Amino acid sequence: MAEISKSYEPRDVEKKWYAAWQAADCFAGKVVADREPYSIVIPPPNVTGVLTMGHVLNNTLQDILIRRARLEGKSALWVPGTDHAGIATQTVVERELRKRKLHRRDLGRDKFLEKVWAWRHEKGGIILEQLRRLGASCDWSRTAFTMDEHYSRAVRTVFVELFQRGHIYRGKRLVNWCPVSLTALSDEEVIMKPTNGSLYHVRYELVDQAGRFIEVKTTRPETIPGDVAIAVHPDDPRYTALVGKKVWRPLVRAEIPIVADRAVDKEFGTGALKITPAHDKADFDVGTRHHLPAIDVLHADATLNELAGPELAGLDRFAGRKKAAELLRAAGALVGEEAYSNNVGYSERADVPIEPRLTWQWWLRYPRVEEAKAAVRDGHIKFHPERWSKVYLHWLENIQDWCISRQLWWGHRIPVWYRKGLDKETLTEADLRDPAKIHISLDGPADKENWEQEEDVLDTWASSWLWPFATMGWPDVAAQKAAGLDYFYPTSTLVTGPDIIFFWVARMIMAGLEFVGEPTNSNPKFRELAQRVPFRNVYFTGIIRDQQGRKMSKSLGNSPDPLDLIDKYGADGLRFGIISIAPQGQDIRFQEDRIEGGKNFCNKLWNASRFRQMSGPAGDNSSLAAILARLTLAQFDADDHAILQRLVATTADIERCFREFEFSAAVQALYSFFWGDFCDWYVEVSKAKLQNEATKLNCLALQDLILRQTLLLLHPFTPFITEELWENLGYLGETPNSKSQTPNPKPGTRNQQFLMRDVRLESADSFTAALAAHGLTPDRVAAESVEKLKALVSQCRALKAEHNLASRRDVRLFLKTPDADWAIVSAALAKLTRMCGAKEFTRRDDVENLPATVTPLGTLYLDLTVSVDSSAETVRLTKELEKIAQHIAGTEARLNNPTFVGKAPPAVIEGAKKQLADLKAKQTELQRLLAALG
Q: What is the separation of C-alpha 680 from the centre of its chain, rounded to a whole number of angstroms?
């Protein structure tokens, strides 16, 4: 036990304790047969990532959960790791190559991948180091990476198994295509941006009726050479007679049919659409239904190819757009052009508009869809907030096949080999099952010289969907046993954002249902659906936004650097502050002053603990039982009963908050109890008891109990300062290993006791029972009387502040109250007078024309005649009355103005009427106060 210094220095404390925790292996997740497991797998940040405010929120929440689980005696495991982030990482390394005027193809695949691995080894662990500064108590010995050899084998295993089970196929379909990175993209890698452009009015002449036209509107005239039809709604009377006829395509002139399709919106534009299946998803679907060809007029880099015609071939798509408009105008087919704004999908990494592109890709038909619905619908997995379950189930009802291939080099190369010389463009589904043409296995064919491996890699999500079980040794039996898959799976809670509920959460659920227990694990528990789900709970965080409501991002420059905030406010201050503004499932308006509030709370905790240490000798704090043995209920006064009652209630409230995933509410409850109930009230009223030898030891023991329980409840939120104060106040834990530990174990060794590892937080029921066992059940009646006194003091201070008397301690107060309530007041009159900052506090029934407030113990009046300078106050009130009279006159004039009343919205009129009523009420109050001054 050391003396608590005058001021709290977070940097020194954080560095000291994180090193000590790691040296003592405090974060290790171990299989302990007689303890309940609790496990979390970190949503793996991109290997390219650095700490953002989103990471701060997400990982603070995970750390809160894992630390609380340890305190509850569970065997807790938090698995860390990073995602290889295919396109993001490849883009970073390619950017470095471009500075040297090189392209990856100049190096070749193997040399380029060597560069990527070198970059990963140098920079890839930055974000994990930053998480350590935040206090993340991950089991770092288990740090996973989605390109580790073991993990890669799990990914290949899943591909081969799903192919053999008929879930994977190769098909030519539309995908999101990046013309810079030259790869397919997931929807998550596409950012919608408002874009200004033009809407072109183009007419198509009927083949058999020269001079008669159908008009369409398009934003992309350069794709007209790829048009294969005009579509109209079958019930649109304007076009019913034209269905089945043909029109002339105006660029690369050809006959194309008019088809009827219910996907056409009769009310949009002219009710007629150009159908370009190779360049639009909706058009592709129409083309498929009507067996239309698909004409691709773009190269992979979004330049126009020879099918676009000689005038457009070779042009960039945007230059081609202008040229196509000129050609249409010259042909008399362009009949109008207007400014037009719409949302266009951009490649997140390359920041260019994507193209819907028709390419050969590998696709996955999702497994276990019905079971995935049942897992959530039947409560095996619970979403917090629950409303996200509806979003999840709706997506599964409308699920579409997943494009799992990417045209990249960095990633898990697809374990498919083609016989050399094979034409991949002509492969059929049957060919994929022909071992003479295609080889699909974990390690490839024996005679690799006769085969060529697939160039594509898997979508990043096609590896991260295995995260909950591939990080625990799957599919290797020995590795699973060593990692404790049977013990820690299903994991307990996933903390993530709702923006990846489809890309990651739903896919992990399906992967777990499909593969856990197969093909190598024979544990019978995994035969149950409830045991194969990857997690029991999913907590969805909100999005952190600035004060203007914009999502925080580097590009906007509106996000603070979390490391700067840690330097400024301490890790605990940042953690406490960010959770305080993050109610369940709601977006967060970031306020730095709330982070400062977190620091201020830590300082309050530090100073209160120092005050306790300075107030008297430390008693026996070696266990909860030892502290309770120092307390005597007979020496309790009403304030002692009240603070103990509030401690019991707060313990139960925090337990409820964790059960309901209400972390912000937990922080607010702890703040209210410690700052309001303990520091502002109990510590103040205790000062007199500390001067009395008869009550001092009991008071100190009660403060020790309160501080002990507060540190336990606060530890998951503010781990560094609580560990420091736990040691400095001489608390020890009743631990499983306590009998074998030396009395004063050496700091930084495995025998050292830690709050975070060796101490058990009693449940609310157990805590209450422990109090009762020592005869320390708080008196509810006495406690309630103190709550009423506290409310009276609070309202008194507000009344004084309203009249600019907050700092004055010579005011005179009158209380109009019945006898029963006066008995409560009179018993605490000296204390009450001091805490209200009053010179005189008396009971009176004949009070009039004084400022007043209604309290739980009667109506409290503030005597202004002796508390203020009457002349100055008279002048102030007179001036304020003059201003209010002017506002009243102006508001009445507006309401009496027929023009205003006739044109203003009803809500505005009602607002003006309420404003007038409030002004008149204020005027009456000021007139009463002026009269009271004489």
A: 33
Residues 427, 834: Cα–Cα separation, whole Å: 90
Token pair belonging to 260? 């009827």
Could you tell me the CA-to-CA distances from 332 to 203, 229, 890 in Å, in that order? 9, 20, 63
CA distance 651 to 523: 39
On the 0-12 / 13-18 / 19+ scale of CB atoms within 10 A, 801 is exposed
pLDDT score, position 311: 97
- 485, 566, 567: which is closest to 518 by C-alpha? 485
pTM: predicted TM-score of the whole model, two decimal places: 0.88
The pLDDT of residue 520: 59
User: pLDDT tens digits, residue range 72-106?
Assistant: 999 999 999 999 999 999 999 999 999 999 999 99
Q: If you write DSSP's letter for every residue of 526-546 in order, what string do you get?
A: GGSHHHHSSEEEEEE---EE-
Q: What angle do CA 762, 765, 766 make, to 5 degrees?
A: 40
Q: How many Cα atoms occupy the beta-carbon half-sphere of 119 within 13 Å?
A: 22
101-126 tens-digit pLDDT: 999 999 999 999 999 999 999 999 99
Cα 852 from Cα 528, distance rounded (Å): 66
The predicted pLDDT at position 747 comes to: 46
Query: How far is Cα of residue 878 from the mean position of the Cα atoms in its chain?
Result: 53
C-alpha neighbours within 13 Å on the C-beta side of residue 392: 30
**Residue ranges in the chain modelled with pLDDT below 50:** 734-750
Element (H, E) at 79: strand 75-79
Taking the C-alpha atoms of 337, 343, 349 and 351 in order, what is their torsion angle to the nearest 10 degrees? 30
Transcribe 486-509 into DSSP letters. HHH-SEEEEEE-GGGIIIIIIHHH
Question: Helices (H) and strands (E) in the chain — how many of each?
Answer: 35, 29
Distance of alpha carbon 608 from alpha carbon 596, whole angstroms: 18
- Helix (H) or strand (E) segment spanning residue 284: helix 281-289
